[in-house]
Amino acid sequence: MEPLVQLLKTEDVKAMLGTRPWDSHKGMFGYVGILGGSLRYSGAAKLANLGAAALRSGCGVVTLGVPASIAPAVAPYLLESTLFPVPDRDGSMVFDAAALDSFLAGKRAVAVGMGWGRSEEYAQILDYLFRNTPGTLLLDADALNTLADGGLDLLKSKRGTVVLTPHPMEFSRLSGIPVAEILKQPVAFAKSFAAEHDVILLLKGSVTTITDGKTVYQTDRGCAGMATAGSGDVLSGVLAGMLGYLPPTALTVACGAFLAGLAGEIAERETNAFSMVASDTAAALPKAFSEVLK
After folding, report:
1. Can you give the pLDDT at residue 2?
2. What's the pLDDT score for residue 130?
3. Most CB atoms closer than 10 Å: which of 14, 114, 180, 199?
4. Across 215-222, average pLDDT
């Protein structure tokens, strides 16, 4: 039997966002880091889009950390985000404690793994991030694959809150549970995994499940147009941005998933389910926030 869940509503998200004082400044809303990219998956515009999604979601400052060799390709696409070149070899990040310390300094939330690819040094980087990130560390894409390859014992060294954002196949790699079984009981498996490993788990799907092992939220916002490359990256940007100024809870993560899905719905209405791309979702984030806040 599946555990009880709370289906997130607009008023839940509005209450979480609250209001902002007239004398606000950027330092009040968090410094956020996004660590991703590789020569093989440079996606300069897509990486820039991650930063845009985080800023559109309300954080104060976003720093995009990419391999130094692709930094010149990414830089022209950045407007408000700042760029942090990370030491690399052959287009993949290498472990450099001093560089990671500098990147992490002052960050309230860090998202890692988007466009990362695979590298022998990533497990070492991930272990260092777990041990030295006092705020929230969000893992997506190849960071999840790195965790699955390196073993879940890596999670035991975490210093702050960890958020995992797998789709069913990635969750299967992490948990060892077949995808078919996960799809039969997504809530039960997600809740059990989150409780066992003391993480916040966002299990993607047409209905997305978010749980900290105790409370379970779901959101059904989204659309067919979001079935396109980069939609998961935009979600990671939204979550990182919101974790820059809101509590690192399952409810915050659920609200981020709700807003990303709503932005996708708005983007699809303004384009169509066939032609829509992930940057359309990022561009629609202000309208999604306005729709919730009005």
Report:
1. 56
2. 98
3. 114
4. 98
State how far the alpha carbon of 268 is from the alpha carbons of 55, 146, 168, 256, 286, in Å. Answer: 21, 33, 24, 18, 15
Alpha-carbon distances, residue 257 vs 48, 87, 172, 262 (angstroms): 20, 32, 21, 9
Q: Which of 73, 74, 67, 71 is nearest to 89 (CA)?
A: 67
Asked if residue 257 lies in contact with residue 236, where contact means CB atoms within 8 angstroms, the answer is: no
Residues 83, 76: Cα–Cα separation, whole Å: 10
Pair of tokens at residue 125: 């980087």
Give the integer Cα–Cα distance in Å for 130 and 195: 18
In the predicted model, is pLDDT for residue 260 greater than 80?
yes
CA-to-CA distance for 48 and 234, rounded, in angstroms? 10
6-13+24-293 CATH fold: UDP-N-acetylmuramoyl-L-alanine:D-glutamate ligase (3.40.1190)
Structure tokens of 88?
Answer: 């690399």
Which residue's structure tokens are 């590298």? 119
Complete DSSP assignment for 134-187: -SEEEE-THHHHHHHHH-GGGGGG--SEEEE---HHHHHHHH---HHHHHHSHH
Asked whether the beta carbons of 82 and 63 are under 8 A apart, the reply is yes
Token duo for residue 192: 């059990």
Rg, the chain, Cα only: 18
Q: Is the pLDDT of residue 45 over 80?
A: no
Residue 3: per-residue pLDDT: 64
The mean pLDDT of 33-61, rounded to a whole number, is 90
| Rounded distance between C-alpha atoms, residue 186 and residue 174, angstroms | 14
Question: Does the pLDDT at position 234 exceed 70?
Answer: yes
Calpha distance 166→164 (Å, rounded)? 6
What is this structure's pTM?
A: 0.97
H or E stretch including 190? helix 186-197
In the predicted structure, residue 1 carries a pLDDT above the cut 70: no
